Amino acid sequence: MQDYLKMDSVTAAQSAKRLLQRHAIRAAVRRDPQPDRRRGCGFALFLFGDTASAEELLRVHGFSFERAQTP
């Protein structure tokens, strides 16, 4: 299983990825494997490494997301 974040839009996911990269945290924007029409656009931010630090950094910078795991 891999942690990922359901994002509000593909643009938000891309911006979040760039922010994380500037802080040496690896991430990738991909299709959400479990899309939910109530939450977001169907794209997600997949995290590699320290997910807690990534989530905190995104919160501090005002990103909205929902944590999920691949099945």
Descriptive report:
There is one protein chain. This protein has helices at about 10-20, 50-60; strands at about 5, 25-30, 45-50, 65-70. By secondary structure, the protein is an alpha+beta fold. It has one domain: Alpha-Beta Plaits (2-Layer Sandwich). The longest helix is centred in the first third of the chain and has 13 residues, at about 10-20. The mean pLDDT is about 90.
Lay out the secondary structure:
Blueprint: E1 3-7, H1 10-22, E2 26-31, E3 43-48, H2 51-60, E4 65-69
Antiparallel strand pairs: 1-3, 1-4, 2-3
Spatial strand sequence of the major β-sheet? 2-3-1-4
Shape summary: globular
The helical percent reads 25-40%
Order of helices and strands: EHEEHE
Number of strands: 4
Low-confidence segments: none
**Rg calculated over all Cα atoms:** 11 Å
Total number of helices: 2
- End-to-end C-alpha gap: 6 Å
* Oligomer designation: single chain
Instruction: Calculate the mean pLDDT score and round it.
Output: 90
CATH fold-level name: Alpha-Beta Plaits
| Relative strand content | 25-35%
Major beta-sheet overview: 4 strands, antiparallel
Q: What is the CATH architecture assignment? A: 2-Layer Sandwich
CATH class call: Alpha Beta
Number of domains: 1
